[in-house]
């Protein structure tokens, strides 16, 4: 049996599977190394997905009416938008943060999305490895991060009707099991959900199934991704920053990496809630013909898991 692909998997009827521009090598609003947005939409639909994320703001059309038409014409729906924040820096960054967040939240809501994925800012440059700031937060910065994220969750919910889901990410201050659990313990579950990215959590040494079993009440969103353990060993040994690690292929096509996604999906199903599970295979940059066949195979694999 192929690792992670059960021969007779139960139906995961609470899991809504989708994909994202990231799985097509899209990291920036505009970059000649990336596929045009029209091709992404065409291919994500052809690959068998029903849900998408917006990706970096400005990659897809930002006019709600046009975006709705383009998405609907391909049989797609939007699950979430994504923002990067630096809330650990305190109240001084709030106005700038809110200007960006509100713009993305407004578009997300206008096209039917329900969630806003919030990613902490990087502590080192993902291309040069230069330190932007220390990798460990001070006690005061942790307080700013917790209080600022709670404020963001309340404002986004009250003004735009969305829930935020904070995404632990490699080379950010919310990455390892220690940091993730510290963040969850410090924030109000009523306004701050967790977006568990299985690949990033494994990249940073975490166990996704254990996190779901321990903090399941906090899980509001799921990203599906796998890590190549052999490449990861070299990344950890050499202290390679995330961007170059991606170019080395550290995030690999399921089911060839870790964690096994079948047990993750089964644990998520066991929570008894409707949950988006969005495929995000980091591979920037990549040849334009590479993403589609991977996306098709990944969708077939997830169906074999019952999703």
Describe this structure in words.
With 307 residues, this protein is an alpha/beta fold. It has 11 helices and 10 strands. It has helices at residues 37-46, 64-73, 94-110, 139-160, 177-186, 198-203, 208-215, 229-238, 242-247, 261-269, 291-304, and strands spanning 15-19, 51-53, 77-85, 115-120, 163-166, 193-197, 219-224, 226-227, 251-252, 275-279. The strands form 2 sheets. It has an 8-stranded parallel β-barrel with strand order 1-2-3-4-5-6-7-10, surrounded by 6 helices. Strands 8-9 form a two-stranded antiparallel ribbon. Strand 5 (163-166), helix 5 and strand 6 (193-197) form a beta-alpha-beta unit. The longest helix is centred in the middle third of the chain and has 22 residues, at 139-160. It is globular. Residues 1-7 have low confidence and may be disordered.
Features:
307 residues, alpha/beta, TIM Barrel, two-stranded antiparallel ribbon, 11 helices, 10 strands, 40% helix, 15% strand, disordered N terminus
Any chance you could write out the topology, listing elements then pairs?
Blueprint: E1 15-19, H1 37-46, E2 51-53, H2 64-73, E3 77-85, H3 94-110, E4 115-120, H4 139-160, E5 163-166, H5 177-186, E6 193-197, H6 198-203, H7 208-215, E7 219-224, E8 226-227, H8 229-238, H9 242-247, E9 251-252, H10 261-269, E10 275-279, H11 291-304
Parallel strand pairs: 1-2, 1-10, 2-3, 3-4, 4-5, 5-6, 6-7, 7-10
Antiparallel strand pairs: 8-9
Helix pairs in contact: 3-4, 7-10
